[in-house]
Each structure stands twice: as structure tokens, then as C-alpha cells.
Amino acid sequence: MARRDRVRARLRMGLAVLAVIVLAGLGAPWLAPYDPGEQTDAVAGRHRPPFTEMAAVELGHGRWRLADRVERTAEGLRIERLGKSEIIAAEEVLNLTEAGVRDRRVFLLGSDGFSRDVFSRLLHGARISLFIGVTSIVLALTIGVAVGALAALSGRFVDSLLMRTVDGLITFPWLILLIALAAIFPTGKWVLSLLLGGTAWMGISRLVRAELLSLKERDFIVAARGLGAGPLRIFFRHLLPNTLTPILVVATLMIGGLILTEASLSFLGYGIQAPDPSWGNMIAEGRYTMSVAWWVAVFPGLAIVVTVIALSLVADGLRDVLDPRTSASES
Asked: What does pLDDT average to in each consecutive run of 10 residues of the chain (331 residues)?
């Protein structure tokens, strides 16, 4: 009983963390304080540390200046910017108030080298990374289940042909294959999902084939055949539901792997391209400035780590909760 409680606690923890990440990604347009590509002041706002607050001076024609301090004077507005002080005439400032200016810029997790808000980019990057992970696994499951079922339920020749093809594809280095394909096709999030899902199904097909081979001669399947059930009815009514537990566990684990792979491709320059944010290209942009702006790469890296750990907790919890052998041994 104590072990079951620990398993369920890990599952709840993983689901809670994953729910927060998913909701943050879905709500990015409303939760993000700024546009992820907005460059308010690319000079004064670059590489600002977390929790930096600056005054935002609007000068018209879409021009903004960020200042560490502002002070209203008789001549207009005195601003301290980049270690220097300057006076801006009052008629040039569109958001002038009695105390200074009414707009502020808060970098909750700091800013990058283009003065873009890291927190806003992190939230929008979650949308892209999670979208690619989910759509890729859906495609991989579709192909993997179809190939595995065809191999297990067809004749020996079809089984041998399909499995030898799968073995040959598995032996090819996956990341190198993805890089080669990404270099040929323009990599948006849909194309990247197709590339990842279209090359990640081989392990699923082998798992489905093994599960179906162990099930198709069981007594309940023989009884269904004896009652006149057709092959499609047997597959969708009896075989497929009994293979869902291992498939679900493997798919949950694979989402984390696919997110890591997308991040690796984006880090290498073959994934999501700037200015669209993904966790991978955010790390790539910050790798050269770790000594002066560690937050640019560290926060998206932590987001990937937390997401993968949450998915691992969910997968482990689902395996223990749904596996009847585990439940029987605990009871």
C-alpha cells in the first residue's frame, strides 16, 4: 500500500507540473507581458538581468528608449541611460507625466541580446515545443501501430518484410537522418513535426507487433473468432485495447524525447528558425553569452529539464497504475 501511494503521488506530481506547463503554453498570448519578438530598445535593453525594471520613454513613430532613471525637469525629461544623462524636450515625449513617464518595462527573467523579454519568449517557446512533441507522437503512433499490427496479423512473408525494413531503419543514426532531412525541407513547426513523427515510429511498431503476437492466440481471441467476429472487429474490440497500456507509457516517454530532439535540432540551426522562439533556439542564442547573460540559456534549459522529468514521472506512474501485474502483486 505504501508503494502504491508513492506511485500515485509521483503520478499526481508529474501531472500537476505538466498541467502547469501546458496551460502556460496555451495561455502564452495572454500570460506573456510582451510580444516575444518585440525589441523596445535593442541597445539599452540588451542582456538585462532578471527582475530588471526600466522606464520606457515613447518618442513617436514607434521609437522607444529604455532608461534606468527618469526625472521631470523644466526643460522636459532627464533620463539616465547607458551610464549617461541626457535631456529630452517635453514635446518629444508622448507618455510624459508629472513624475516622469507612465510606461515601465519589467524583465521578469531578464532580456536577451536583442532586448527581447526572456519570460515572454519562454512561454511562446513552450507552445511550439509542446505542439511539436504532441503532433509528432500522434503521427508516430499512427504509423507505428499500423505497421506493427500489419506485421503481427499478416502472413510470415509480410511480417518478415516489414520487420527487416524496421530493423534497417533503426540502425541508421536518427539525429543524422533528421539533420539531413531538415537541411532539404524548410523547417516550420508543421514540417518539423512531420519529420520527427515520420522517423520515430519504428520502436512503437516493434512493441505493437510483440504485444499482438502474444495476444492473438489467447483464449478470449479464439473465442471471439469462434463466435464469428471478423478480423477488424477482433482487432479494434479486443486486441488494440489490450495493447494500450504499454503503448501509452512508451508514448508519454517519447514526447519528452521528441521535445529534446526538437531542441537539439533548433540548437544546431536545423529546427525552428528565428525570430520564432523555441526552447532549443533560445539556448542556441544564449550559449555564447553564458558569462555575461546566463539567464538567456539557463531558463529555457530548465524548462526542458522540468518538462522531461514531469513526463517521466507520468510515464512511470501510468505503468505502475495500469499494469495489472503490479496491481495484483500489491494486493
From this structure: 72 91 92 90 90 90 87 86 87 85 92 93 92 92 92 86 89 85 83 91 90 79 71 76 84 87 86 84 88 92 92 83 54 47
Domain count within the chain? 2
108, containing H or E segment? none
- At 13 the three-state DSSP class reads helix
Alpha-carbon distance 290 to 305, whole Å? 18
Residues 232 and 98 in one domain: no
Do the Cβ atoms of 254 and 163 come closer than 8 Å? Answer: no
pTM, rounded to two decimals: 0.84
Residue where one domain finishes, among candidates 67, 85, 107? 107
- For residues 227 and 158, state if they share a domain: yes
Q: Which residue has the cell 519529420?
A: 195
The CB-side HSE value for 86 (13 A sphere, CA atoms) comes to: 10
Considering the domain architecture, whether residues 216 and 295 belong to the same structural domain is answered as yes
Cis peptide before 231 (omega within 30 of 0): no
- Whether residue 188 sits in one domain with residue 290: yes
Cell 540551426 belongs to residue: 269
Q: Which domain holds residue 140?
A: 118-330
